[in-house]
Automatic annotation (TrEMBL):
Protein name per UniProt: 2-C-methyl-D-erythritol 2,4-cyclodiphosphate synthase
Encoding gene, per UniProt annotation: ispF
Organism, as annotated: Geothrix rubra
Classification via PANTHER family: 2-C-METHYL-D-ERYTHRITOL 2,4-CYCLODIPHOSPHATE SYNTHASE, CHLOROPLASTIC (PTHR43181:SF1)
Keywords: Isoprene biosynthesis, Lyase, Metal-binding
Family listed: Belongs to the IspF family.
Self-association state and partner proteins as the record states: Homotrimer.
Amino acid sequence: MIAFRVGQGFDVHRFSAPEEGRRLVLMGCDIPHDRGLAGHSDADVMLHALMDALLGAAGLGDIGQHFPDTDPAYRGADSAVLLARVMGDLAERGWRVVNADVCLIGERPKVGPHRERMRQRVAPLLGLPEEALNVKATTTEKLGFTGRGEGLAAQAVVLLQRG
Ligand SMILES: Nc1ccn([C@@H]2O[C@H](COP(=O)(O)O)[C@@H](O)[C@H]2O)c(=O)n1
Ligand SMILES: C[C@@]1(CO)OP(=O)(O)OP(=O)(O)OC[C@H]1O
C-alpha cells in the first residue's frame, strides 16, 4: 500500500559578530556575507529546518534528539553530512522524498543569486531532481529579529512516500 506523510520544520540562528569570523553556510553552500550564523554545528539554518521536516514526516522526532548540541561530536558539524544520515534513517524505513520546499526568512543575504547552487547541492542528497526541490526566501519587511538583521529563520515542508 502506498503511504504519504507530510512534515514541516522551522529553525532560527542568530548572527555571530563579524570578528568571530564564522562562515555563513546555507543549504550546504558557503555564502559570501559579512558575518556567519552562531551555532554548535555549522548553523546551516535552512538544512536544519529541512532535516526537522524530514524527521517530522517520518515520525522520528527532531534534530536535537538525533544530534544533541551537548555532544562534542557535532561541534562544527557539516549539516549536509547530518542530512545524509537523516536520509539513511528514512531509507531504512522505506521512505523516499517526493518534493521539498525550503524558505529562508531574513533581509540579507538575498537567496536569489545562490538559489540554483543550493538546489544543485541539496537535491542529490534528497534523491530528487532539482525541479522537486524549491528554494525561496522572504523578508519580514524589516520587522522583528530577522528584520533587524539579528539572525535568520528558515521553514521547510516535505512530502514523503513509501510503497
Ligand atoms: N533573503 C531574501 C529575501 C527575499 N528575497 C527575494 O525577494 C522577494 C521579495 O521579498 P518580500 O519579503 O518583499 O516578499 C522574495 O520573494 C524573494 O524572491 C531573497 O532572494 N532573499
Ligand atoms: C544540528 C545541531 C547539532 O548541535 O546544530 P546546532 O548548531 O546546535 O543548531 P540548532 O538548530 O540550535 O540545533 C540542532 C542541533 O542538533
